[in-house]
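User: What would this chain look like folded?
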Amino acid sequence: MTTILEEPTTAATILIVDDAPENLNLLGRILEGADYRVRRQPTGRMGLTSAVTSPPDLILLDIRLPDIDGFEICDRLKQNPDTKDIPIIFISALNDAGDKVRAFSSGAVDYVTKPFQAAEVLARVAIHLRHNAFRQQLEMKNRELERLATTDPLTGILNRRSFTSYAEHYRARADRYHQSGFGVILLDIDKFKRINDAFGHDIGDRVLVEVTERIRHGLREVDLFARWGGEEFIILSPETPQEGAIHLADRLRRSIAGEEIAPAGQVTASFGVAISHGGEDLDGLIRRADFALLDAKEAGRNQVQSRE
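Assistant: Here's the prediction, encoded as structure tokens.
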């Protein structure tokens, strides 16, 4: 599928930094005539403060300023995470090749010389605003693709693949630094097929989302939580002894069963707990938790079992 990036539609804000009033006025009139919002600053410090306090969409920056030269301003803006992506076009009466090289080296995207040609200024401003808008859209789409690749689309929590990656990283780190054991909890919604058969998959999905929220509210920020598959979920609880993991699992069990989920009624879940004490691979640990989960189901469901 081809993704089409949209043209920017809102009027951009452009900051002009130049110590010559006639340049500020001329550039301002040119840009305002093209419906841009314009801010004018006559010194380097004022321009820098304006850019950091309220980042514009693009900066027209004079190289020769009385207090801070344009190169230093550009360097500072590029080192600031909040302003590093703002396109900067240098302006100067000089036409020295060394200045141009230094301008691009400091992070500028373009360079225009005085006296200004309105058509040239507007063309350069427009193309760099468009490039920057496309870059921002592309970054947003890439972040969304990354989120979709690592999360379960229904519940919004980690998917199996991303959980395994994070958990393996944590297990290796725990072994390396000889950290205390961590717990793995597997849980499965009891008789979930009956819910789907009786009420339909939309209600089944609602149950999965509600159970997810009840579990999420009972976990710490450091705990990993993922949908393992179907109606099965998995939790990794760092630096947790067996008694603590069992207590956590039972608290979550009671939270799930405590209030009915309409129209399905009371929903329960079975839990299996296993604790790593170092040296065991992740697959073996999860396998023990899975055996404990089977023990819980065979013992009557809606309970917690553990395996050493």
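The domain at 13-148 is CATH 3.40.50.2300 (Rossmann fold). If you want, I can go into more detail on any region.
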